[in-house]
Predict the structure.
Amino acid sequence: MKRLLLLLGATALLSPAYASNSSARWTGEYAPLSASYSIYSGLPGEREAPTKTDRKLAIAIQGPAAKEIFDSLYPDAKDVTCTDEKGERLRRKGEVWCSYRPSDGYRCFLGFNLRTGASISGASC
């Protein structure tokens, strides 16, 4: 019983401290990011000029925002790479995927079909 009370007491003391530290960093505001985009038709790996009936949006995010997204998508994909570069890592959840390469850092990709609003892959290897 004493152990339970000690554990509950420690949890009660540490929880506000932890919450205040994490909430001090998180503001709920949008943060700037470095990104580029392409509007196209066809498949991500075989892009063509957009048409009236086929318009897709691919977004590539780089820098600190890409690292934060990458860190949120753990774990690394097993036995999957896009290049032969040593140290390359890939992570994916649904249609959002990120890569880390020592030569160019973190990059994340997402996409949307602009005619349906559906989430699609933003890139291919």
